[in-house]
Each structure stands twice: as C-alpha cells, then as structure tokens.
Amino acid sequence: MSRGRRWIAHLDMDAFYASVELLRYPELKGQPVVIGGGRRHQPELLADDTRRFASLRAYAGRGVITTATYAARDLGVHSGMGLMKASKLAPDAVLLPVDFDEYRRLSRAFKAAVAEVAPVIEDRGIDEIYIDLTEVPGAQDAVGHDPFGGVRALAQEIRNNVLRRTGLTCSVGVTPNKLLSKIASELDKPDGLTVLTEADIPTRIWPLAARKVNGIGPKAADKLLALGVRTVGDLAARPRAELIEAFGRSYGAWLHEVAHGRDDRPVVTHSDPVSTSRETTFERNLHAVRDRAALGEILTRLCTQVALDLQRKGWRARTIGIKLRFEDFKTVTRDLTLPEPVADGADIRRAAGECLKRVDLTRSLRLLGVRASSLTRG
DNA sequence: TCTGGGGTCCTTCCGCCA
DNA sequence: TCTGTGGCGGAAGGACCC
What we know:
This protein is α+β, with helices and mostly antiparallel strands and 378 residues long. It has helices spanning 16-24, 70-73, 83-89, 100-115, 149-166, 178-184, 201-205, 218-226, 232-236, 240-247, 249-259, 292-313, 345-357; strands at 8-13, 33-36, 44-45, 51-52, 54-55, 65-68, 94-96, 121-123, 128-132, 170-175, 193-195, 275-286, 315-326, 331-342, 365-377. The protein has 4 domains: 8-14 and 102-198, Alpha-Beta Plaits; 16-98, MutS, DNA mismatch repair protein, domain I (3-Layer(aba) Sandwich); 206-259, Orthogonal Bundle (DNA polymerase, domain 1); 275-377, DNA polymerase, Y-family, little finger domain (Dna Ligase, domain 1, 2-Layer Sandwich). The strands form 4 sheets. Strands 8-9-1-10-11 form a 5-stranded mixed β-sheet. A 4-stranded mixed β-sheet has the order 5-7-2-6. A 4-stranded antiparallel β-sheet has the order 12-15-13-14, covered by helices on one side. The structure holds a DNA duplex (18 and 18 nucleotides).
C-alpha cells in the first residue's frame, strides 16, 4: 500500500541521438554536429585511420534535422529544421546519418540501468521514460535537513547508473505527477536533477511559457496568446468556465487542471501497439499519371515493409490505410477495414490499391505512406 | 531552399441498427 | 408503420509528441 508522498520521475536523455554518435566518434566532442538526412553521408575511413565526415555545406535534398549537439544548437539550428536552411546557418557543422539500430540498443541499455534501481517504468519512446518512485525503498526518507533527501538520492543513483552503463548523461525531474515531472526534467538540462513539490508551482512553473506544458502545442499556444495567456501562471488565473468556453468541455477543463499542476495519470508499464506504418517523401514530386509506374513500385515497397514489420512483431491488421501528401503540403488519408485481419504483403497491397482509387490524383504528390491498424496478435 | 518518419489520441460525421 | 433516439463501428482529419 502506498504511504507518504507520490513521487514520479521523468527521465530524458540529453540530445540522445547526437550523444550516441559522440560515443562512437569522440573526436567530434565539442563540435557542432547534426543528425539527419538519408543514408548517404556515412563517415569515410581514411588510409591514416582518421575519419572524414560530411559537412552540412554540400547538402541538397528534403531532409530535416533529427537532433543537433548543443554546440550546433548554439549556431541556431534545431531539430525539425530543414537541412538546406541549416546548411546556411552552420555550413561547417558535421552531418551524420541516423542509425536507429544503435539508438535502440542504447535505449534498451539505459532503461535496463534504470530498472536496476526502480522497476516501475513507463516507456515514452526511445529517449525518455516515467518512473514511479513512490514505493522504492528510501523514497520517503528525509536526509538531514532535506525532507526530500531520500528521493533526491534515489534519482541521483538512477542518473549515476545510466552514466555507468551507457556513458550517456540524462536529465531528471521528480515531482508528485507526470505533468510536473516532464516540465521539471527540462529545467536544468543537460545533466540536471530537479525535485519539486506542489509548493513550488507558483515560483517554478507559473513563470514558464504555456507552450512548455506537454499537450499545449503550437495551435493551442497561439489561441491562448490571442486570449492574453502567455505563461502557465496566466492560464492559472483564468476561470475554468472561460477556458471551457474557449476550448471546449474536455480540453478547456484539462487546461485548467494542468495550470494548477494537477495530474493523476498513473505510470503505465505496459501497452499494446495501435498501429504501424511506413511512409516516404520523394526526392522530387511525382504525378499519378506521368509517374504511375514509379508510384506503383513505391506503394508496393511500402506495403512489403509494413507486412514485414507486422510479421516480425507477430501482429495482424484488420484496417489498412494510405496517406498522401500533395505538393501544397495538404494531406489526405483513406482507410479500409477488412473482414479478416491480414499480415501478407499482397493482401495489404490490394487494400492500399482500393484506398488509392478513392483519392483525386490531379495534383502532384510529395509523400506516400501505408498504415496498418486495428492490430491483433497473429 | 519549404517543411522527415513513426506514432497516439481526440473529435466529428455518417450509416446502420435496435 | 412512423418517428425519434442513442449506441456503435468505421472513416477522415487534426493536434500533438518524440
């Protein structure tokens, strides 16, 4: 039975992909490095055993930055930025391709390191997790004059163990709930530890931009700004009814709760996947008529990849969908639910073909995707 | 020089059916 | 039989996140 305070940690690996690359290529430490783009731009091993890295200067294509080192961020580049734009800002930055297999390997390693100290973990993707520390021995103890010394020491032990097992640093926020911990882990990044309680909300949370709240994205932030709400504190000052009026019953009430730091979501240690998908942005836009053969090949390849993903994980899908992005960046989707779940490439291809017939294909396409959902165990 | 890829969840609409 | 209502699955789009 739970006794004492609820303590939830949010752990976020520091510039994860870039830090993994620096483990491999320590000679790049301190340099501006960006990760992104295609499989080209592999470092080249020279005769004298040194490596030659691609620089951003020569980049041409439609890729974006996946992660950048802190040195690169200082030059004004950041994740999500187009590589062409980044090459103007930081032409001498090193460009490395993404290596998801390696990131997944270190992701498993850091999660195992955490589990050695605290086993109740919620996966939130490759580089972050929530950890329920409430029941971990020592979490409720005071240490000297520090009433929260026990949980602080525990979080530090987790950070030490992650560094020991992976060579990577992380930032941790520890608070009474997931919402506050997610915010707190960013307050002292990189390599930081922040412990907060409800008493700290007015001084540490309310001054922050509303956008810092997980769940307030660019659209909601713009709308809030138009209402004169810039910070979390501004949001907390608004009556619940006013927020519901502006944002609807569900989201409005949620905004009111989060502004006051309230969140009772549990740490969820297991969840089944909902969908799996593959998509690709073309090197150049393709037209349904002029590039019919090329598009057909790409669609078949995506279906094959989705089928292999399903088979590898032992899943079958009852709903198959496609996603198309036109030259003007407008996106449409079409779904088809089948009488029986499938995992075969040809079945998926047939369903995707049916979906495609329901789209007006007069404009050129920049992206094509295939999605499998309504998953069941095969 | 336009803007990746892989996800989750929510809302709305629609047709079907009890 | 007509009308209304409410649940539900499926489809589409959108916001958001890493």
